[in-house]
Write a structure and sequence with these properties.
Layout (H helix, E strand, L loop, with lengths): L4 E3 H7 L5 H9 L9 E3 L2 E5 H18 L1
Antiparallel strand pairs: 1-3, 2-3
């Protein structure tokens, strides 16, 4: 089954209300390993499962660093 596509607004809210500029920086920073958006016309969408995996990987890496 295909993953649900979510908008940039939903992504920003899911990530705690980050700004669009922060989201842009994360997309363009290879060290962040942030999922690439899917572009449909001029809009950006993300696969919900990829975003959840990224959030989980960040949580695991932060716990391991402590």
């Amino acid at each position: 089954m295909a993953s649900k596509l979510i908008t940039a607004t939903v992504v920003r809210e899911t990530l705690g209300g980050v700004s669009d500029m922060t989201l842009w920086r994360w997309i363009h920073d290879p060290a962040m390993n942030f999922p690439a958006p899917v572009r449909i016309q001029s809009r950006r969408y993300w696969h919900e499962d990829e975003l959840r995996s990224w959030i989980e990987s960040r949580s695991v890496s932060q716990v391991a660093a402590e």
